[in-house]
């Protein structure tokens, strides 16, 4: 999961930053399952999705705090040694040729999604990454290009 930040389109918050938690996946479990592309399962009923319909730009933060790593090392989630990555870009619906990949990525890691209410008109989307920052040590962020990010092999 990660924190997706949008610019709110909601009455009373319009134009202000708004963050919400979303489950995501870049592929099925296993050493060769991940593509690096964050896929999401969304519905137009969700308020952040309504924000994205007005302005698809967003940021997505994913932290090692959601794994046993930081607790094992007794790192506070804000401690840079409990590394996190911040993606900037935009969120778009996947095209028909990518739907199967997105479905496999998400449902393999979040099986309960398949049973979510069908009348919510769920759809698959992806986070198109344009900028990446990594915070994994004291002293500031590291900039990673999308090309560097996608070239890494597990």
From TrEMBL:
<dbReference type="InterPro" id="IPR055343">
    <property type="entry name" value="CREG_beta-barrel"/>
</dbReference>
<dbReference type="GO" id="GO:0005615">
    <property type="term" value="C:extracellular space"/>
</dbReference>
<dbReference type="Pfam" id="PF13883">
    <property type="entry name" value="CREG_beta-barrel"/>
</dbReference>
<protein>
    <submittedName>
        <fullName>Protein CREG1</fullName>
    </submittedName>
</protein>
<dbReference type="GO" id="GO:0006914">
    <property type="term" value="P:autophagy"/>
</dbReference>
<keyword id="KW-0325">Glycoprotein</keyword>
<dbReference type="GO" id="GO:0007042">
    <property type="term" value="P:lysosomal lumen acidification"/>
</dbReference>
<keyword id="KW-0964">Secreted</keyword>
<dbReference type="GO" id="GO:0005768">
    <property type="term" value="C:endosome"/>
</dbReference>
<dbReference type="InterPro" id="IPR012349">
    <property type="entry name" value="Split_barrel_FMN-bd"/>
</dbReference>
<dbReference type="GO" id="GO:0006355">
    <property type="term" value="P:regulation of DNA-templated transcription"/>
</dbReference>
<keyword id="KW-0732">Signal</keyword>
<dbReference type="GO" id="GO:0006897">
    <property type="term" value="P:endocytosis"/>
</dbReference>
<dbReference type="GO" id="GO:0005667">
    <property type="term" value="C:transcription regulator complex"/>
</dbReference>
<dbReference type="GO" id="GO:0005764">
    <property type="term" value="C:lysosome"/>
</dbReference>
<feature type="domain" description="CREG-like beta-barrel">
    <location>
        <begin position="1"/>
        <end position="151"/>
    </location>
</feature>
<comment type="similarity">
    <text>Belongs to the CREG family.</text>
</comment>
